[in-house]
Fold this protein.
Amino acid sequence: MNYTPFLKQVANYYVNSSELDTTVFVFPNRRSSQQFEYYLKSAIDHPVILPRLMSMNDFVDHYTSNSGLVSASPIEALFILYQATCNVMGDNAGEFDKFAFWAQLIVNDFNDIDMNLVDAHDLYRNIDQYRNITTDYLTPEMKEAIRHIFDINVKDGEGKFWQQDAAPIPVESYGEVQRSYVTLWNSLADIYTEYG
């Protein structure tokens, strides 16, 4: 079976367009833009003016700068995110220096949510449900019993069950770092709303 990559199909479709030089192609990232450019150049057999290729970030930066709006600097975004986190989590937000470790990842995730027009509450609920589904609920003792009784060696990660089929680990038994992480994780959708 012959498989033609999607970006190559798009390049082949537009290669002979009379409006190629006035067209702007927007991609989720620079890597896909570069791959599309490669396919487009490979398909061209005559002189043409190439279209404008932009990543989604470049597109947003370009058109917001023309609107008079200014993107927050990374430092500004960090402080805005911390304020939003404090508003949502109160004293559980923790100290700024500890928060700053995760902040850039969270800002990047929030930017991806915005650029892909994703509902943050649905996204974080789905990720949480997936995480619960893929949790390994077999204790080392259970794995040893399975090995002994059935002569089956259960490796880590092979004892995955739906959460309702096994008792979840109580939050009270978490360490401080785990409790902070879970508290932050459970608040991310609300932080996103406050941050926006």
About this structure: Residues 176 and 182 are 10 Å apart (CA to CA). Residues 96-115 form the longest helix (20 residues).
